[in-house]
Amino acid sequence: xxxxxxxxxxxxxxxxxxxxxxxxxxxxxxxxxxxxxxxxxxxxxxxxxxxxxxxxxxxxxxxx
Length: 64
What we know:
Helices cover 69% and strands 0% of the residues. The protein is mainly α. It has a domain at 1-44. It is rod-shaped.
């Protein structure tokens, strides 16, 4: 192989390595986001139901 071919081979190898690392990071991030969403849903499902929000609801007045 010529010197130019060797340089191109290494350049392609580095590019493939970086592309694969980026894909792995994206998969890892999406799994983390999915896990976080599952944890939030689990927490929300175990909380007692709350009264629905009413725009007319006013909190009790603050007293000293």
